[in-house]
Design a protein that fits this description.
heterodimer, A: 294 residues, alpha/beta, Rossmann fold, 2 domains, six-stranded parallel beta sheet, 12 helices, 12% strand, elongated, B: 236 residues, mainly alpha, 7 helices, 0% strand
Chain lengths: 294, 236
């Protein structure tokens, strides 16, 4: 028994699959088709914690990612920073990734300087926020920061002595932080912040991570991790809550990069599911065809 | 002697780190060890750079397959280092810095190094990562087949998790509200995804983590006691 359609599908050129994937990803981006999400408990817990902290609380923003995972993590970094600025918390940016410093600068430029750089309650460098830049040494750098920030890095990313920055007065180590928010793409990252800073020093920590990394970090939730925001889905959840609480201007699509990326992810997943089902349909049909009939 | 001294250094520093973790008065000693780690790690980075050069220079001189890629690697390596070290395009940011040559930060916006990062490194690594979507889609079609019971279980789990990662799970869960945390899952896929994550994935991951931790403790003790010398290289 032969089927021309089955024969055609058996020899399907993979370039058709590539074209399908390109269309599934490109179309939602070009047509601005986004995807919303219902917030999950690990995301809600981080949002509530930032809301609950009194104004001017110290938050360490550890941005341990680079352009490889920026598509997934940069919208998250923007969301967390926006929320902290809206609550007027003091922000301490740092990265233990050598390629992470431009990610911090980009976040500061897009949120702190663009949205909160003017007006009555503007964010001033050295007073309301600061950038420690890159700290070499992976887990050891975190351990050094836990015991003495100035030993780990005596100057900020601009080369100014930490003692000259008013935001650093009364901050000898990471212990003085009210919350650590880590955006993590792998090693070194979330796991190391939990093991070398948050748990030994009893500092609340929340992590935003890539989807694939979430399985490694969920064992720490909810005992050692206050909240866990995973992948684009988590970033959309955070943006949804931000839009509900601060609709002007954060309900605006332009301020919701994760929402727009969610559409592409949704259609890519649909295509993948379709391909798996189709592939298995062909597999079963081939087996049926090969089975000898009596 | 060449082996004994490194073993002694590793053992002494390792034991100091362990004891200092439980004894706050020894914190300054731990800090000194951490400072030295950073210095040694930096030297190791330079050794890594030298090793990279030697490896690729050998490939080029032997005209091995793909020697052209080695040339590109070396050229990129040296151009990036030169642009960064010479601070090409960087300008002083303050009046105080004007007094000193090459005083602007090498990663300053608009500098050569910044340009390499923004317009070469960033698009290249993003593209490499994005290509995964295409290859995974092709692999899902060709290789992800229900050939036996294990493959069927993997396939079903993957489908549930894939649907659960987007809002499409609400269609499959008949738009029922998500259950409260801690409650038992009911049939819809949204909750099955959570059920898989909370039980099978987390339990498996915890088992792996505990296993790794025990392995690390055992290996560390062997290194500290000088029983395992494989980190020194050679045949030991």
């Amino acid at each position: 028994m032969t089927s021309p359609l089955l024969n055609k599908l058996n020899g399907l050129d993979r370039r058709w699959i590539f074209l399908g994937m390109a269309l599934a990803v490109l179309s939602p981006i070009l047509l601005q088709i986004g995807s919303d999400e219902t917030p999950s408990p690990p995301t809600i817990k981080l949002f509530d914690q930032i809301e609950r902290l009194p104004e001017g609380s110290r938050i360490l923003m550890a941005m341990d990612f680079d352009p490889t995972s920026a598509a997934e993590l940069y919208p998250m970094a923007l969301g967390f920073t926006r929320h902290c600025c809206l609550r007027h918390h003091k922000l301490y940016f740092v990265t233990i990734w050598p390629t992470g410093k431009p990610m911090i600068e980009s976040t500061i430029k897009a949120v702190v300087q663009a949205d909160f750089g003017s007006g009555d309650r503007q964010y001033v460098y050295g007073v309301d926020y600061m950038n420690l830049g890159y700290l070499a040494g992976d887990a050891v750098a975190i351990s050094q920061m836990s015991s003495d920030i100035r030993k780990a890095r005596p100057q900020d990313a601009r080369g100014t002595s930490l003692d000259e920055l008013s935001i650093m007065s009364g901050v000898p180590s990471v212990k003085e932080m009210d919350l650590i928010v880590n955006v993590s793409a792998g090693f070194p990252g979330g796991k190391e912040w939990v093991q070398y800073a948050a748990t030994p020093q009893k500092i609340p920590i929340a992590i935003g991570c890539t989807g694939v990394q979430s399985t490694q970090l969920f064992p720490y939730y909810p005992d050692q991790l206050l909240g866990l925001v995973t992948g684009i889905r988590g970033a959309i959840e955070y943006e949804t809550m931000l839009a509900a609480k601060y609709p002007n201007p954060y309900a605006n699509r332009n301020k919701r990069p994760a929402f727009l990326r969610g559409g592409a992810q949704r259609w890519a997943h649909r295509l993948m599911i379709g391909l798996i089902v189709l592939g298995n349909g062909i597999h079963l049909a081939n087996r049926y065809r090969r089975t000898p009939r009596r | 002697m060449s082996k004994t001294v490194p073993i002694l250094i590793a053992s002494i520093v390792g034991f100091i780190m362990i004891v200092a973790n439980f004894s706050p008065p020894l914190l300054p000693v731990r800090q000194i060890a951490e400072d030295w780690f950073t210095i040694v790690a930096t030297i190791a980075m330079m050794l890594g750079g030298a090793n990279l050069c030697l490896h690729h220079l050998k490939k080029i001189s032997d005209r091995e397959a793909g020697w052209g890629f080695s040339t590109v690697t070396l050229l990129s390596f040296f151009i990036t280092i030169a642009v960064g070290l010479l601070k090409v395009g960087a300008v002083p940011e303050s009046e105080q810095q004007l007094k000193f040559a090459w005083s602007g930060p090498f990663q300053q916006e608009g500098s050569g190094f910044w340009w390499i990062y923004q317009y070469l490194f960033s698009p290249i690594v993003s593209t490499m990562f994005a290509l995964l979507a295409f290859y995974v889609a092709s692999a899902a079609f060709r290789a992800f087949r229900a050939k036996n019971v294990e493959a069927i279980l993997l396939l079903l789990t993957a489908l549930i998790v894939l649907v659960g990662q987007t809002r499409d799970r609400e269609i499959t869960s008949l738009f029922l509200p998500p259950p409260v945390e801690g409650a038992l899952p009911y049939f819809p896929i949204a909750d099955l995804t959570e059920f898989i994550r909370k039980t099978f994935v987390t339990a498996g991951q915890r088992a792996i983590m505990i296993g790794i931790a025990l392995g690390v403790v055992a290996t560390s003790l062997r290194i500290l006691l000088g029983l395992d010398r494989s980190y020194l290289g050679g045949d030991e």
